[in-house]
Each structure stands twice: as structure tokens, then as C-alpha cells.
Amino acid sequence: MKIIEKVEVSYFRSVYSLSLAKCQDVNVLIGQNDAGKSNILKALNLFFNNETELKYPVEFLEDLSRSRAEEARSAKGKSTIWIKVTFRNYENWQSLPKQFVVKRTWTRYSDQPETVVVGNKDIPNTTLGRFLSKIAFHYVPAVRGRDIFTHYLMMLHDALIDDEKAGISEASTGLVGRINQSTEEMARAIESRLGFKSSIGMPRDLKNLFTALDFTTKFSHHEVPLKKRGDGIQARHIPFILSFVASQSKKNHIWGYEEPENSLEMGRAFDLADQFQSDFAEKNQIFLSTHSPAFYSLSQDNVQKWLIRSCDGHEFEGNATIAMPLESVADFDKSVGVAALISERAKDLHEKIEQLQSSAQELKGRLQNAEMPQVIVEGPSDVIILDSAYKFLFPDQPPMCEFISAANANKVVSFVLGVADLGRKYPFPITGLLDDDHEGRAQFNSSKQNSYVLLQNTTLRVVDRVRGIYLGFLPKPPWVQEAEAKLNEYNGASQLPVTIETLVSKEFMAEAVEKGKISFRDETTTAKNANFTVPVNISNELGKYLEDGDRYLVQKVDEQSKMQFSEHFQESARLEDCEAFRPIFEWLGTTIRLFREARNG
Description:
Shape: elongated
Helix content: 40-55%
Structural class: alpha/beta
Distance between the termini: 67 Å
Strand content: 15-25%
Radius of gyration: 34 Å
CATH class of the largest domain: Alpha Beta
Strand order of the largest sheet: 9-12-13-3-14-15
Largest sheet: 6 strands, mixed
Number of strands: 25
CATH topology of the largest domain: Rossmann fold
């Protein structure tokens, strides 16, 4: 939510003069410790709440920029702190222009600032007052103790009291009634001795009651008060409280949030950063300071970033905080150290871990409900083709296994090896089948393969013989072996990739290409030396040595056509188109036999 378009701060603490222009939903301030990031957030708190820190009013002489104080003394001039905020007319009030600038100025002679609209005398003070009163600014300091939680619980009270659906007033009336029923004897004694009726009533302001409340959290099988949990768990509740308050409030909310990543490990910080950008920023405008790659790697359109630095003054003596719009990691790698260099890598790794965990949970759920041997393959089109091939090859036999898609080679390897590491026994064998291509070989590389024994007469490795866990590659059909032999005559050692589509007969493949049921794209690379950079079409270069019908073996299947091809295979394939799949089912039969022998032995 964009409420503020631009912030200008002058003569406040370490800030001599700076501006944040083109503000977005999420505004990220990045820099070293003591660069002045927090002072920018505190300046916003000063503008909206006339406080520098939570419940701390401005102390002019302490909060005035030292450089400006020296200048004023030398020139015997007047010292001021001023902050200008350019607002967007985000609710389209007819009495306001699309944008307008409000300036607030503090002096040593008044606790309250002077407020003026800059460059527009047509905005009445009453209109401006109503506009500003609809904005609530929340400053969240970096150190978040119990007193901070108490403050936000009081805010939660205010939001719930305003919300009739919450039923707080009705519930409190019922509570009082039950208490008075239990103390009826005491009430009669008071009336008889004092001569007037007396009963217990609920206070109008329940804030003090709310400050005594706590969250109850689940830990293992137990309920644990939030205040007994770690700082990171507590810290993660604050933005949710603020977001709930905003959803219940008639006001519009701006956050000034210091270092939201505090007390969080890297993975949790990435989760929180994503929530700030996608969820919390929907109904709030957020200004935050950070040192974490999780936040300064945010790159969506609704995010603006600034590098905050302390530098020598040009027009004044001493150092001051400056802000520069940030376009890339290269602009600030020296400022925040090696963490900036790994931010993109850290983000990519976190996303991959999240995807792996999600798919692992899904696959574990499938295994728990399974009743037959499980074979984990790379994609849903692989499942369709393998199921169809089995039906063509063994039309009178029931299914020998269930094929499950893991989405890619990385997930096949991670899941199968993860099941082995967990040590859990299943009542059936589990096998991972990989395409014998670059991705599959990279995920199950020679180092990993050499850790396990090769199952005789297969390409499967025995991960755990007793529990029946295997992992390996698709078999290589005769036509691929023949094409490799031809290439090796001219180009030395060549290892052609084998995907599930490669196992389909050449005749069926030719028909499918002609009918537009599958498409391929050429493999390309770039050749370089000290003087030249030349694009190279590998498929063309290798295709020279192959028959025309074999050229697809040195191309890559277009991902967009895989599902269409698998459905075409399911509908139109014949027995002779499936012979290259037969070794797979023979291998799986061997794993099932060995599993039964191990259980019975």
C-alpha cells in the first residue's frame, strides 16, 4: 500500500539532509551498523507520533544534528529539525490533489511541531487534519522485549473493542454476570451492613487485562506460553499482530520496522521477507532497516531499496547519514560485506530447500498410504508413459508397482536418499529412476554412485538392500548405443542423454514428430578463446555423423510438449514401441524378489 511518495529529513540526529524518493509498498534501508538507518525510521515516528522512540518524546537539543548545531552557533542562527513527507492521495479525496507535501518543524521552544502544507495554500487545515488522523504509524525497535509485546497487545485490545464481531463487550458482560452469581452472598452482606447494593463490574478500558494476556503455542505435544519460547518465535508474532490490527482498523497503517530478521535463522528470515512483501504490504506501507540477504534480495516491483551510508560532510563539518537508491548488489557489496555477495545464492538455496521439503512431505504422505512397490520418477509425463508401457508389455498382469512424480531429478535423489537416512521400514521396496542426462548425472554423480553397490545386470545402485531402496538411471536402448558408437568414431567419447521419451521406438517417435505431438530444440553453446566468442550449434555439429532419423538424439525435448507426447503415447502406442522399457520392469521385478527374500531371510 503506497501512502507516502517521498520522505525528506533535515537536521535530525545523524541526518544532515537526505531524501527517499519514489517510495513503494516495501522500502528497505540497507547499510552497516551505525550508518543511520534507524534514525530514518525514528524520523518518521517523530513526524507521525511526535516521538523518536516508542513512548519517548522528542528532546530537541539531543535530537538536533550535531553538524547543524555547530553551524547555528557559528552563524548565531535559529536551529530547527524539519521533516517533509510527500503524500499520495491514495483514497482519492476530491478536496486534495494527487500529491501534496506536508512539512513539520521542531524548535527548542515548543514540544509540538509547526505543520504546514508546502506549495499549496488551498488545502484547509481541517482537511489536512482529517487526512493525517486516518494514518497510524507503528515504530518497531530492533530490541523487542516484553514491554514491546505489551504495547502491541494494548493495540490489539483497541482493534477488538472497535470490532463488534469480536464480541468483547458482550463476552465481558457475561463474565461479570457469572462472577456476580458466584459472589451473591458477599453482595447481600455488603447491602445489609452498608445499606446499599454493590456488585462487581467490568472496567470500561480493558487494556490492563490485555497486557496480562499471552499467546499459547504448541511445542511437540505440549502447550507453552509464548513468553517462555525463544526470541525468534516471539519476534515473528509482532508483524501478525500489526497486520491484524490494520485489518480491523478504520485507519491506514505505516510501519517503521527495525531489523525484522533479528533472532531468526536464514530460512525463517526468507519466509518473513516474503510475507512482508506479499502479505503485510497489501494493507500497510512498510519502511524497514536490515542487514539480511533475505530482505535486501527482495526484487519485486513493489519494493524500493536504499543504501544508507555515513560520509564526510561537504557543506558542513563532521559525518552525516546519506541515502542512495539501490539498483544492484554490486552497489553495496563493499558496504555490508560478504553477505551481499551470497544473497542471491542464499535465496536460491532457500527456495530449493522449501520446494524439496514440500515435495518430500507430499511423497511421504503417498508412501504412508501406498500398498505396492513405489517407483519415484522425474515428472508426470514419465508416469503416464511408464504406466502405458507396462500395460502394453504385460496386458494380462496386474500392476507390479506405482509410479510417482517427484517433479525433477533433484527431488528424486533427495527423497530416495532421505528415506534411506530416516531408517523407516516400508512393507515394499522403493526405487528412484532418473533420466540418464546431464541433470540426472549431476544430481546422482559418480561420487554418490560409488557409495553404493551396483545391482547386477542393471543401472540401479543398492542404497539399502534389506529395506529395498534403490536408485539409478534409465536403460540405454540399442539405437542410442549405435548412435554413440558412430559419434565415437569421429569425436572421441560421447555419452548421449537418455530420457523417458528416448525409450519409445524410433518409428513411433518419427510419427509423433510428423504429427506435431512432440518437438525438440537444438543444443547450443559458445566457444571462446582469447580473441573470439563464437556461438556453436552442437546438434548440427553432431548431427552430421548421424542418420536423419537419429538427429533427435542430440537434441533436447521441448518441455512444453512432454505431456502432449505422453498422452499421444498412451492412446496410440503399440507393443513393438515399448520393447526398450522391458528392462525397467525386469529390474523392478528383481528388486521386489530381493526385498521379499531379505524379509523372509
